[in-house]
Amino acid sequence: MRRGLKTSLVTATGAALLLSASACGGKKADAGGDGDGGGKKTLKIGLAFDIGGRGDQSFNDSAAAGLDKVKKDLNVQTEEISAKPDEPDSDKESRLRLLANKGYNPVIGVGFAYTSSLVKVAKDFPNTKFLVVDADQCKVEGANVSGACFAEEQGSYLVGAAAALKSKSGKIGFIGGVNVPLITKFFAGYQAGAKQVKPGIKILPAKYLTQPPNFNGFKDTGLGNEAAKGQLDEGADVIYHAAGGAGIGVIKTVGAAGKWAIGVDSDQYNQPAVAGVKDHILTSMVKHVDVAVYDFVESVANGSVKAGTKQYDLSNDGIGYAPTGGHVDDIKAKLDELKAKIVSGEIKVPTKA
Questions:
Q1: Which is higher by pLDDT, 102 or 36?
Q2: Sequence-distant (≥ 6) Cβ neighbours of residue 143 within 8 angstroms
Q3: CB-side neighbour CA atoms (13 Å) of 289
Q4: How many helices and strands in the chain, by DSSP H and E?
Q5: Can you list the domains of the chain with their CATH numbers?
Q6: Nearest to 275 by CA among 31, 86, 37, 13
Q7: What are residue 129's phi and psi, to 5 degrees?
Q8: Do residues 174 and 262 make contact, with C-beta atoms less than 8 angstroms apart?
Q9: What average pLDDT does the chain have?
Q10: Best CA proximity match to 44, nearest among 76, 4, 73
Q11: Between 19 and 172, the higher pLDDT residue
Q12: Which of 109, 256, 296, 335 fits as disulfide partner to 118, beta carbons 3.0 to 4.6 Å?
């Protein structure tokens, strides 16, 4: 784990060109040549984003930041494609297969929804290395398949503690994008951390924007806005979202009401989409997808890549919380004490509420 990398990676924004292949309906990034003139071999990286794609200022952008760091440090050619709302698994399979057929190696699927499709496609391309970020149930199969897993519940425990310590109304809320096991882990940790530091805190029932197979809850900012209004009306003065791009609507609504919002995946304090309300972002639960992407590509480049899953958690700083803005400075000692207890095993963070 490279500690300097985490602070240097900057969330990538901006549009990319639409890929011509109609089966994929995604985006294409810049492409380099076959070499750099110095005899170095070009590594061709294909990356398939989850719904929202590059520019969601959350989960996908964290992956994009890792890819952008790779572009600076290694001789690479890249292509990016994004998922579409409510698409079937066959579309994900086609997207991954397209990249592999075009000679991209490695191929990366960003998001748990790619897991089954990626494992299936990998069997047909044994010489191509594959990574799925947020591997479903933290399980992958195949000698050429790697998975990056995250202890989201651990980071959520810390921001839950922060929410309870900062709440003045005694009520806090949580908004998840889609009601799937991965997102319920966020709520489980959040609730446990809040109760640890303030047993009497009132935690509103978790609000999930959509139910599978509808994954628009990770993209639709309007849904985030309405859900935030509902929890504010119930008296919550701190609301944590785990809703990807839809969380921008949560943050804007909470900030406009003068209450505290807690971001997710990336450090959302300095993101352009929420610049007008950034002083109401208490903290963010940071999930270093950027580091996972970088680690994997680097391991492919130097020949050290291993199949199976790798866990990112508080012990290796793959998960954490953002102090940007200084709003948690007064409780940082307490949060770091809780972190140390989680790392040591003294505190066991639940994965189910």
A1: 102
A2: 126, 307
A3: 32
A4: 10, 15
A5: 3-150+289-316 (3.40.50.2300), 152-287+323-344 (3.40.50.2300)
A6: 13
A7: -90, 135
A8: no
A9: 90
A10: 76
A11: 172
A12: 109
Identify which of 109, 96, 185 has the alpha carbon closest to the alpha carbon of residue 147.
109
Burial class, 13, CB count within 10 angstroms (exposed 0-12 / middle 13-18 / buried 19+): middle
Question: Is the per-residue pLDDT at 32 higher than 70?
Answer: no
Does residue 36 have a pLDDT over 90?
A: no
Residue 39, pLDDT above cutoff 70: no
Q: What is the pLDDT of residues 123-138, one digit of tens each?
A: 999 999 999 999 999 9
Tokens of 179: 């009601």
Cβ atoms of residues 104 and 43 within 8 Å? no
CA atoms within 13 A on the CB side of 310: 21
Question: What does pTM read for this prediction?
Answer: 0.85
pLDDT given for residue 22 in this prediction: 31
Residues 293 and 289: their CA atoms lie apart, in Å, by 6
Tell me what the mean pLDDT of segment 290-316 comes to: 97
| Nearest Cα residue to 349 out of 203, 134, 152, 149 | 152
Please say if the pLDDT value at position 276 is more than 90. Answer: yes
Residue 92: count other Cβ atoms within 10 Å of its Cβ: 26
Nearest one of 190, 249, 187, 257 to 222, comparing CA atoms: 249
**Residue 104 structure tokens:** 């991209």
Rg from Cα positions in the chain:
20
Q: Would strands 43-49 and 145-150 be described as parallel, antiparallel, or unpaired?
A: unpaired
- Report the DSSP pairing between strands 281-287 and 319-321: antiparallel
**Bond before 106 cis per omega within 30 degrees:** yes
Residue of 117 and 24 predicted with greater confidence? 117
- Nearest Cα to Cα of residue 334 among 169, 153, 198, 172: 198
Q: Which of 12, 87, 89, 92 is nearest to 49 (CA)?
A: 92
Contacts of 303 (CB under 8 A, 6+ apart): none
92: amino acid identity, one letter: K
